[in-house]
Write the structure tokens for this entry.
Amino acid sequence: MKSLKLNKTTRRNYLTYLLVILAYVILQVLGSAGAISSSLKGMLVPICAYIVMAISLNLTVGVLGELSLGHAGFMSMGAFTGVTAAIALQDAIPAAPLRMAIALLVGAAFAALAGFLIGIPVLRLNGDYLAIVTLAFGEIIKSIFNNLYVGVDSKGLHMSLLSDTTNLAEGGKLIIAGPMGIGGIQKISTFTAGFILVMVALIVIFNLVNSRAGRAIMAIRDNRIAAESVGVNITKYKMMAFVTSAALAGAAGALFAMNYSTIVANKFDFNTSILVLVFVVLGGLGNMLGSIVAAAALTILPEALRQFSDYRMLVYAIVLILVMLATNNPTLKSFFGRFKPGKSHGKEAA
Amino acid sequence: MTFLNFLISGISLGSIYAIIALGYTMVYGIAKMLNFAHGDVIMVGAYICFYAVSRFDLPPLAGVILAMLVCTVLGMVVERLAYKPLRQAPSLAVLITAIGVSYFLQNMALLLWSSNPKVFPGFFVSASGDTGVELFGGELKISYVTLFTILICIVIMLALTWFTGRTKMGKAMRACSEDKGAAQLMGINVDATISMTFAIGSGLAAIAGVLLCSAYPTLVPTTGSMPGIKAFTAAVFGGIGSIPGAFLGGLLLGIIEIFAKAYISTQLSDAVVFAVLIIVLLVKPAGLLGKQIREKV
């Protein structure tokens, strides 16, 4: 018989699952009762996408301990490839949920590939140099999708860069139109799909962190040289964390994109990467529940501050600075310290 | 001759990047933080100069000096209020605070000066009204903005080299960036030195803002963010923390950007710049002039 005395980490993981399920059920019930405003309803899918972005970035920043400033690049990769797949398969697969699932998988796969490619230079670098390479990667992805033309016709997919030379056959249509992005997307993302993606992301991350591989990754974060000297394969585990994080971000991107009718590459810029990083740091490094709460709260906050209209982003900035000052004040910090497993790393990096 | 033209405009753009990158690299060297708000200080400087000259009819030089003063004070105030309480905090917390300051400055500018683009006045016009010199019978045209930018960048570079190498404050700065604790034991006022570094960096940012907007005359509250990112890239490119590195990185980045625009594609120039950066970091992981610090076990 399974012992009821679970260890602390497992308990916290189950608590996270439970709270996410609870939030989903409550929102569904409130939604069907008509108690949610339409603006909040419209934000449910983006919130789910940002939650997945935040917990996947937390895997890189909190668990692996490397600063990434280009997470929106993976989101962009997933969004564009996923939506392209969904549009290309529109006639072949009429069932929206199945098409959605395939789009998420395609987005995740391409983002994972991008994660692998960018992982190669990233593995050679440390600290701020690594951060700048991820930033550069995000900007490169943005430039490429701003100038990419992809069309589909009876002969399959056609691609061209810079100008539209796809030369589509009769009946073909252009999917990605350079700086115009993708238009005419069927909005097949649903809150339920978002919820399932959040749960899958949580299961993947918790199981990874709680495994032998996860302990190796955290060992690299805490002391790379010590980990290497006891035989931890640095390259392999860094890459594992990085690619997993990228794949989840790609799926989040596909989910996000299919909530809107048009999507452009400039949506996924440096500011988006920073926004997600803010979620992670405010939620606490390595703390997935914290990331979820921060992502949800900070996505709603600018909307909730709408009554201040012009001042809302200013208030947002001030709140951000004050929260950082408050949580890093020595007395308050020791109080919050026990909720932050990642803080030992932070000190080392300082 | 077109090649020479591109090269000169590349050096000019690179000089602006270099001046901004100097601010990044000095602050990084001493406070070990990425000051993401630096790009927005550029924007503030440009706005101050714009209003001083076009609304209050001050002479351009007075406008630039006023912008420098305001930015210097702004840099010191931001450092005192937002960064100093976090001196012992993890670097990520400081980074997020810097991002908060950046949002704050952008939105403050939005409220004060609205999002309508301002057209920056051209300062660099000779008495007879022409904006540049023509060489080789008009084949090579160099605008005064370009000449001044390059000249000012060289002057700043020489002045900073002299300052960090010869003056007491400059030496204190270098000492602090090597070892804050030891510097304090030697009687150096670390807080004042850091404050001074922010002041110099922000003053330089004001100059960069005026030069940037003289060359590309549209001024909006987000004017500073992209040049800020590029200059940050330039600082890393040259090896962050190194002053000659920031200079070299800025120049190279500007030249690569202009050449990529001219010979590869206008839209993909950013992608080319960042791809070159990744390749350089693959070969030289600490940047071009960065010190490769050996890890001790």
